[in-house]
Amino acid sequence: MRIVLGVAGGIAAYKAAHIIRRLRELDHSVKVVPTANALKFIGAPTLEALSGQTVTTDVFDEIDTVNHVRIGQEAELVIIAPATADLIAKIAAGRADDLLTASVLTTTAQVVVAPAMHTEMWLNPATVANIATLRSRGVHVLDPAVGRLTGPDSGPGRLPEPEDIVAYALSVKDADAGDPAAAASDACGVLTGRRIVISAGGTREPLDPVRFLGNRSSGKQGIALAKAAHAAGADVELVAANIDSGLLTGLPDDITITPVESTLELQYAMQSAQTRADAIIMAAAVADYRPAETTDSKMKKSGDEGLTLRLVQNPDILRGLVDERSRQTRLGDQIIVGFAAETGDAETTALDYARAKFRRKGVDLLVFNDVSDDQAFGHDDTMVQIITSDAGDINVGEEFHGSKDHVSQKVIAALSDQFTHVESTT
Q1: What global pTM score does this model have?
Q2: Helices 162-176, 16-25: inter-axial angle, 10-degree rounding
Q3: What is the C-alpha to C-alpha distance for residues 164 and 421, in angstroms, rounded to an integer?
Q4: How far is Cα of residue 131 from the mean position of the Cα atoms in its chain?
Q5: Is residue 37 among the annotated active site residues?
Q6: Do 83 and 12 touch, CB atoms closer than 8 A?
Q7: Rounded Cα gap, residues 150 and 188, in angstroms
Q8: What pLDDT score does 95 carry?
Q9: For residues 92 and 138, is the Cβ–Cβ distance under 8 A?
Q10: What is the DSSP letter of 285?
Q11: What is Dmax (Cα atoms) for the chain?
Q12: Phi and psi of 101, rounded to 5°?
């Protein structure tokens, strides 16, 4: 496939080298079109050596081949990574004052944009409006990652990892498959008109005013799911259990966020939201037990004596949502997605535990990840398998490795497929 890789002038331009290498490993032809400022961050010799093609920035270079039109016309896919706020503004305005913007203006191929900039730029109303404009025109815009930026800054605005950009861009091309109708459907969002309720984070069960029993869930996966569902056109509600406020900063403003702390608070919030949901994704890590008693003041150590805690079992929120769906006729088409973070033992594999949970919970989809050896919590990448059923048979999807953003896109695609299946059988 003939791919044009646009590179804008930001510090993340060096990651373009990894994108080129990955695309070439997959036997794609890559024409790199940088901006003039991009060459201040990464040199043309590097881009030419990796791509095997000449690199230029000006519309007056190679004018005998009408380069500023030909490159866009011949492209089968355009990827821009990184895309700065300035370049995004130019594309949104229809500018064509260099080779890259001219190529974007002439192409009829799918265009994938991966922004990278400081948080303040990403959240600026001008950038927000420009991104909305691009998406309204069918441009596929990846939300930036949250993490370390230039200097000491950290927040939303980091370029997604190269392998995730490549995987997303190629999935866009596969979904399109040259079908304009499919492209238009994808642009407007496969979940447009749907309300999706997502739980995220980890519950905390108070022992006293300063101590609690908790787990290691950061909420990153749930946040990524909220972004992916929103990008697919859904109205999203996020029930956030003890998620760091910095992680929530990069969420679109129209995502409703309900903060909770304990399992009982999460149960109440999810039960309340269920009545207006077309689908529920239970990604939060929920405590199985809570202390039977709590104290109003901080517990003190008493000599060398240990502390004995009596725990009581928490309600099964996920199973309760499934049961409520069965009781309420109007919720009959609601889709419920569960998560299973499992470890294996000497007798049973983690996957076998996930299969058993799928049967026990009665969900439509179960996203399984093996958290043995600290493989998931708090990390930016993960491995999942999606478990479904067909006429009573349990189907386990292939292992999928990737960032939590990319995994979320897979989950949202599976959710969309489930909506299609439900509609075809009713």
Answers
A1: 0.62
A2: 50
A3: 28
A4: 17
A5: no
A6: no
A7: 33
A8: 94
A9: no
A10: B
A11: 88
A12: -65, -35
At residue 177, the pLDDT reads: 52
Rg, the chain, Cα only: 24
Annotated binding site for CTP: 288, 298, 315-318, 339, 357, 361
CA angle 322, 328, 334 (to 5 degrees): 55
Q: What are phi and psi of 348, to 5 degrees?
A: -135, 135
Cα separation, 379 vs 281, whole angstroms: 20
Q: What pLDDT is attached to residue 311?
A: 95
Q: Is it true that the peptide bond before 252 is cis, omega within 30 degrees of 0?
A: no
Q: Which residues of the chain have pLDDT under 70?
A: 174-189, 373-381, 426
Query: Is-contact 154 246, C-beta < 8 A?
Result: yes
Q: Which residues are annotated as a binding site?
A: 288, 298, 315-318, 339, 357, 361
Which domains are seen in the chain, by residue range? 2-188 (3.40.50.1950), 195-424 (3.40.50.10300)
In the three-class reduction of DSSP (H, G, I as helix; E, B as strand; rest coil), residue 156 is classed as: strand
Q: Of the residues 67, 130, 215, 369, which is catalytic?
A: 215
Q: Are strands 110-115 and 77-83 parallel, antiparallel or unpaired?
A: parallel
